[in-house]
């Protein structure tokens, strides 16, 4: 396993002292950078990663006190421990060093064992501080991640891969300068009896995803129980040897890892740039569980929505049973309304709601005698009153439940006209709900395309011409001008919908 060596910057204007420090520290595995004065040391710190500074006090240009003060005043570097090595023994000099921000003092001539002990202690303290800061950052990220999921969650629009991308982005290391997070994240997604592996890395400022053929990661990954584990030397542990070997065959070297294993998603985070702990496993499990939960919730809610849609279509088909229209009519008008709504820039949720609930526009016809619905000749005055009542009857059947508000508005207003000549209330202009205005033009187009006792079926071009130019019975003034404009812009799509459902019926 690759050792992650701490980088120590040694600052002294005496080459002999730098040589002594190098001989003391290098055998213990530390990487040494040497600087001859404070100014050079500050340039090095601004240019590369440094874990600890050992500095002499009395130096030309920028002395040790000033070097320490500048390091500690810069929020980018203040976390770096600074040890002053000095022959000065006065209380005043120590106070100056403390005021500058020094973390420790070593007296010249220094003792080799004492240098090593102080260095190990300060690096350990720095590591704990970084872990604490990383923990706080992770807590903030977990809170923000969960809050974003909850506030943006839309079951019908739930995208599993987008959610997995978001999960990986929360976990992964974003740059080479940042340590404490994994450099690689592997995710296994299970769909029935099939599964797929995705590898994530952060490259050139963006998250990169690629497919890999890794196979089952561990025997426990196929169990129903969730298992979260971590290892700082996975190549030496039996349960991870197979996984490490397969990754090595793909030129992926594993320094350490954390695994979240379940019978659905599996998440493996590799190479944290430090030792991993149970805390890292808990963070990974928390993020994976959130994704798993919302994936499961989205599936359940989609199933519920599918059952809801099936019930709506069943009720709509029942309303058409005694009418001359076929069941395809209710599906077509739903698609027409969705086309217009999308053209008008309405939300995806509104478009989908219109597509479904527009099918209930004529549900009130269950109260209309079949003799009137199928009468081969024109209706008399009394029959016409009964026929027009289907709008209010439909609204009564649908009721006042908020989930059906769109359907209720459509049923009640889809025969109202922009010029005020419609029914049941003779509303005009924007008094008519927008969904009713949209439904009015979709219903009229479909009626023109189908044969009636009083007219033949018209082709697409003739139907569009009647709606846009009028024929005495249907006039452009009947429609909201903006809805009519949207219809003209999307008329070709209306024809596609009509032909599609006609093909379905005749095939």
Count of runs of 4 or more consecutive helical residues: 17
The parts where pLDDT drops under 50 for at least 5 residues are 220-224
Instruction: Identify the strand order in the major beta sheet.
Output: 8-7-6-11-10-9
Strand-pairing-aware structural class:
alpha/beta
CATH topology of the largest domain: Hypothetical protein af1432
Count of individual domains: 3
Q: Overall pLDDT, averaged? A: 86
| CATH C-level of the largest domain | Mainly Alpha
Q: Based on CA inertia axes, which overall geometry fits?
A: elongated
Instruction: Report the biggest beta sheet as strand number plus sense, adding barrel if it closes.
Output: 6 strands, antiparallel
CATH architectural name of the largest domain = Orthogonal Bundle
β-sheet strand percentage: 5-15%
Radius of gyration: 37 Å
Work out the number of β strands: 11
CATH homologous superfamily descriptor of the largest domain: Hypothetical protein af1432
Distance between the termini: 65 Å
Q: Which range best describes the helical content: under 10%, 10-25%, 25-40%, 40-55%, 55-70% or over 70%?
A: 40-55%
N-to-C SSE string, H for helix and E for strand: EHEHEHEHEHHEEEEHEEHHHHHHHHHH
């Amino acid at each position: 396993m690759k050792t992650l060596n701490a980088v120590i910057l040694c600052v002294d204007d005496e080459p002999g002292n730098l040589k002594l420090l190098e001989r003391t520290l290098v055998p213990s595995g530390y990487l040494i950078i040497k600087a001859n004065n404070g100014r050079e040391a500050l340039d090095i710190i601004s240019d590369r990663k440094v874990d600890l500074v050992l500095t002499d006090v009395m130096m030309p240009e920028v002395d040790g006190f000033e070097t320490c003060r500048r390091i500690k005043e810069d929020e980018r570097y203040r976390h770096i421990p600074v040890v002053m090595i000095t022959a000065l023994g006065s209380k005043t000099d120590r106070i100056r060093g403390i005021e500058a921000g020094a973390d420790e003092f070593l007296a010249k001539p220094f003792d080799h064992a004492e240098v090593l002990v102080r260095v190990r202690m300060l690096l350990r303290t720095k590591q704990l501080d970084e872990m604490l800061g990383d923990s706080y950052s992770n807590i903030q990220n977990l809170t923000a991640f969960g809050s974003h999921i909850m506030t943006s969650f839309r079951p019908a629009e739930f995208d599993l891969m987008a959610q997995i991308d978001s999960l990986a982005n929360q976990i992964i290391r974003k740059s080479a300068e940042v340590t404490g997070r994994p450099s690689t994240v592997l995710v296994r997604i299970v769909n029935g009896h099939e599964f797929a592996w995705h590898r994530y890395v952060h490259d050139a400022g963006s998250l990169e995803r690629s497919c890999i053929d890794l196979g089952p990661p561990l025997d426990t990954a196929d169990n129903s129980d969730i298992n979260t584990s971590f290892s700082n030397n996975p190549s030496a542990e039996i349960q991870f040897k197979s996984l490490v070997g397969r990754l090595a065959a793909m030129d992926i070297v594993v320094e350490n890892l954390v695994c979240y294993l379940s019978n659905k998603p599996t998440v493996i985070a590799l190479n944290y740039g430090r030792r991993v702990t149970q805390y890292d496993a808990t963070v990974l499990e928390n993020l994976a569980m959130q994704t798993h939960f919302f994936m499961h919730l989205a599936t359940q809610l989609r199933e519920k929505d599918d059952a809801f849609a099936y019930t709506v279509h069943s009720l709509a088909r029942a309303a058409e049973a005694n009418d001359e229209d076929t069941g395809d009519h209710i599906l077509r008008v739903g698609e027409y309304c969705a086309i217009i709504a999308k053209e008008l820039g309405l939300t995806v949720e509104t478009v989908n709601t219109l597509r479904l609930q527009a099918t209930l526009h004529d549900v009130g016809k269950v109260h209309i005698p079949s003799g009137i619905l199928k009468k081969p000749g024109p209706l008399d005055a009394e029959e016409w009153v009964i026929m027009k009542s289907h709008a209010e009857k439909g609204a009564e059947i649908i009721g006042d439940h908020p989930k059906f508000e769109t359907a209720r508005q459509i049923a009640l207003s889809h025969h109202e006209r922009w010029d005020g000549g419609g029914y049941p209330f003779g509303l005009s202009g924007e008094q008519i709900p927008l969904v009713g205005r949209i439904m009015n033009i979709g219903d009229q187009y479909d009626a023109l395309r189908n044969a009636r006792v009083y007219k033949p079926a018209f082709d697409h071009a003739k139907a569009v011409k009647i709606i846009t130019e009028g024929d005495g019975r249907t006039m452009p003034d009947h429609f909201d001008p903006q809805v009519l404009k949207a219809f003209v812009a999307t008329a070709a799509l209306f024809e596609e919908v009509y032909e599609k459902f006609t093909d379905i019926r005749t095939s």
